[in-house]
Amino acid sequence: MILKNICKSFGDKSVLNNLSVEFKNGSRTCIMGASGSGKTTLLNVIMGLIKPDSGEMIDPSSRIAAVFQEDRLCEPYSAVANVLAVTGKEVAEDKILSLLRELRLQGSEYLPVSTLSGGMRRRVALARALLAKGDTVILDEPFKGLDEDTRGEVIEVINRYTKGKTLIVSTHDIRDASDLGAEIFNL
Amino acid sequence: MLDSKNKRIIAKASAVLLALLVWQTASIVVGSELLLVSPIGVLKRLFTLVGETGFFATVGFTLSRIAIGFFAGLLIGTLLALLAGRFQIVEILLWPYMITVKSVPVASFVVIALIWFSASGLSTLISFLMVLPIIYTNLLDGIKSVDKKMLQMADVFKMPHFRRLRFIWLPSVKPFLLSGCKISLGLAWKSGVAAELIGYPEGSMGEALYYSKLFLNTADLFAWTVVIVLLSVCFEKLFLFALKRVLKGVESI
Lengths: 187, 253
Prior knowledge:
The structure holds 2 protein chains of 2 kinds.
Chain A: E1 2-10, E2 13-22, E3 28-32, H1 39-47, E4 54-58, E5 64-67, H2 79-87, H3 93-102, H4 118-131, E6 136-140, H5 148-161, E7 166-171, H6 174-180, E8 183-186
Helix pairs in contact in A: 2-3, 2-4
Chain B: H1 4-30, H2 39-51, H3 55-86, H4 88-103, H5 106-116, H6 122-144, H7 148-156, H8 161-199, H9 205-214, H10 218-251
């Protein structure tokens, strides 16, 4: 997937200015930059949620799984149902339960996600993205709201579940790139 | 110890008993069954009314027509709301009609309907006209309240239509649909019977009310009113129960 000369402005503010980047199949990239540098805008362009003002995207990914900046969960439903909402019956419930437990969500698998804490909801969003069909996995600040111990376990799970896939992660934390074995792309 | 639910039920039952007592006392004070019939008089008349030939036919006449009007309003209101939610031009084009239907008095519609059509389908048309804008407006509000970011999420994950309906649309639209149905069910009955009272189609409950007015039969008027209230409440409870079951069924597929 190649992004060529991408420009995007919101009003007078130019967020992406003539940006070019290539994500090779199976590559792992951490997009780094300060708040407001355009990390989320870039991910939204890749996902097709924002149309750039100019520039082109060559060979875009046909199947994307994502953790968005916000959790974007189906509130009245459980963690399991939220995963099933995107995977359908193609992924067995046992597999979903097993991943949720690996993400330290045991006991909360069937609770409405609206009752879960911020960090737990983040992990449900992550489980959804990791089990969904997708050759590209996009994670926008996936460790938001996680404590250090949980972060370590979550990194291990991400590495395992995204093997062979194109991984694009936006983060502030330089450690994420080395822990995920990813190249750094500075914005 | 009584729990709070039972306490509420007892409190409400006591309030009803007190109201009946006030009514009975007022009836005794007035001293004329013609001006203010007593609750006991109404109850007696109600029992004889149910035993009369033609009672169930009269109930069936009005019930079926109001039900048809309600379901037609529900169906068409839903379809129009879906179209208006999808294409803004439909919402703009429908706006004058919906505003007109909402603000024109029922009596005006009844007179127009009597000029254009027969009195027999009057309650169907009037209930339909009362239900349509409520269902349309409520559902359209529900459709507009769907979180656009959730729809983007569904696009990214390429969620199929049925799962979008179940996981994104239904939770947002459900409260609006239920409240629209609740409001419009009561209104369908009130307006439908009022229309029958003005047009008095033969064999309707409205006609029965009309004759009770004509012959100053207060017991009949109150007894028929009790029947209408009971039918309206039962219809509402049954329909909402069935609707909730259906929605729950869709949510759990």
